[in-house]
Structure formats: structure tokens, C-alpha cells
Amino acid sequence: MEEYLIETRGLTKQYGSQTAVQDLDLRLQPGHIYGLLGRNGAGKTTTMKMLLGLTRPTRGEVFLFGQPLAGREKALLPRVGCLIEAPGFYPNLTATENLALFAGLRGVPRRDAVAYTLQLVGLPYRDKKLCRDYSMGMKQRLGLALALLHDPELLILDEPINGLDPIGIAEMRVFLRRLCDEQGKTILLSSHILSEIAQLADDVGILDRGRLLEQTGMAALEAKTRRYIELKVPDARQASQLLDSALHIRDFTVLDDRTLRLYDLTLPPDRLNRVLYENGLTILELHQCEDTLEDYFRQITGGEGIG
């Protein structure tokens, strides 16, 4: 088994003087769902187009299944299914007719591929309803059916929950997780909705202004969201010495000359107050706080939160 199904090295895309993606080193392990998280315009779609050979990189390399993509597109891309932007279906045909047409064009060998794929995404086979009458959720399911029609090993999905209502989002989340866990698919998906990435992905990459700021497992990212006590005192240096020597607390940080964050929550506040008071320090403020994933995203991007 390949170490990475997707790997990029220094992947960069420039449009004139504008850099859409810069020095991207992406790594996706087999059997994982990888969430590429970023605001609209962060470079997610451009990245996915380069992974699929739809856009040529300005510099850098793309590797799929452990092999360079350049020059091997015909061998590697049939192993990939994708949903990039809005899939183009014939509005006056049914879902079955559309998929049958694409199956013929692609030379899909499985005779029951259309029926099987429609059943997999929860759409009826040989239904008389035309695609122009489909809801947004049904169109997204049909787009996934098209991506899955040739039974690919790897799925690349650009904003697959975009435009769905809350019920549709929940159904899509369950479906994608099942594809990974039960069908063995490896999935790269993009989103600007942090909460959905948090509920679905095994790994996450945070993309901002074309740069990959962080790439880590979801569990490791969630571990960075911690509860703590924020403490303001006249002298943070003296307070830190007392925390260490008198209270044997070492899990804290000093933010400035008057502010500390205490991450060890086993210490009773009254004891903390007593020890500081007995050593001439008055607590000016004390707040119990909790960093969220939203806070962390805002912190590393240096800007507003994400949806």
C-alpha cells in the first residue's frame, strides 16, 4: 500500500502577479478522510484542479498513488473520482439516463454500475423524474454517483455539502463516512464550514491565502482546544514563581507582565487565592475560559472566523 495516496511538493499556482496557491505540501493517507479547510478564495478549488490535472501548476509536483501525475494522467486519473463545482448533467434526462450516458462514454465495464451507484447514494433507479426537477440535495447525490460510477479508489470532492439544508448536510456526512469505513474509499474534501470538517474528517489541512498553515490529525487539532483559567495579578512573574514553588503547578503560560493562563484545573480557586494573597498578590481578575476550534482558526489565520 502506498504511504500517501496524494502528495504535493511545493505546489504553486500563479495567475499573473496573483498567487492562488503557494508552496503547498499536502499529504493524504490511504483510508482517511482529509478535510481541506479554508475561507472562500483560500485556494481550495485551484488546489483540487491541479490534483486532477485540470490546471497546470506554475511549479511544484503532484503525486497520486505514489507516482508523479505529470505524464501519467491516463494511468492514474481513472483511479480517481471527483466532484468539482457543479457537475454537468442533461436537464431533460433522468438520473438513470444521465449516468448510463456517462458510463458508456467512460467505458465502465460493470453492467449494473448505474443501478448499483444510484442505490449507493440513495437515488431511485429508472425513476421518471428529470434532473431539472431535482432539489439541491438530489443534485449533490447525483454528482457523487457520477464520481463513484467507475468505482474509484480515491474521491476528490470540492464543497460537497455546499447549498444543502441541515438535514441534507447530516445525510451527506453519514454517507461520506460510510464510503470511507465500509467501501474503503479515501476522500479529500474541501469546505469552509469548520464544524462539518470537525465532525467528519480524520485529518485536516488549514489553507489561508493559498498557504497551508497547518496539517494534522483531527484528534491532535482538537487537543489544542483547552479549558483554562485566565488570571490577572499585579506581578505575573511573581505569581508564576508561586505556582511552581508553593502549589507545584507547572501547566501554565505567562501572557504578559500581569496575565497568566492556568491549564491545571485541579487546583481549587480558594486555595489559589489564599496562597497569592499570603504572598502579597491580589487577584485583579479571574475568568474560566475555553478555546474552541473557531478560536484556534482565528488565531493562526490572524483574521475572522470561518463559517
Describe this protein with a few key phrases.
alpha/beta; 6-stranded mixed β-sheet
Report on this structure:
It is built from eleven helices and 15 strands. The chain has helices spanning 44-51, 73-76, 95-106, 113-121, 136-148, 166-181, 194-200, 218-223, 236-245, 269-278, 293-301; strands spanning 6-15, 18-24, 27-28, 33-37, 59-64, 67-68, 80-83, 154-158, 186-191, 203-208, 211-217, 227-232, 252-254, 259-262, 285-290. Helix 3 crosses helix 4 (113-121). The mean pLDDT is 91.
Distance between the termini: 36 Å
Poorly predicted sequence stretches spanning 5 or more consecutive residues = none
Rg over CA atoms, rounded to whole Å, is 25 Å
**Category by helix and strand content:** alpha/beta
Please list the strands of the largest sheet in the order they lie side by side: 7-8-9-4-10-11
Number of strands: 15
User: DSSP helix count?
Assistant: 11
Q: What fraction strand?
A: 25-35%
**Order of helical and strand elements:** EEEEHEEHEHHHEHEHEEHEHEEHEH
Dominant shape: elongated
The average pLDDT value, as a whole number, equals 91
Helix content: 25-40%
Topology:
Layout (H helix, E strand, L loop, with lengths): L5 E10 L2 E7 L2 E2 L4 E5 L6 H8 L7 E6 L2 E2 L4 H4 L3 E4 L11 H12 L6 H9 L14 H13 L5 E5 L7 H16 L4 E6 L2 H7 L2 E6 L2 E7 H6 L3 E6 L3 H10 L6 E3 L4 E4 L6 H10 L6 E6 L2 H9 L6
Short description:
With 307 residues, the protein is α/β, with parallel strands linked by helices. Helix content is 34%, strand content 26%. α3 (95-106) packs across α4 (113-121) and α4 (113-121) crosses α5 (136-148).
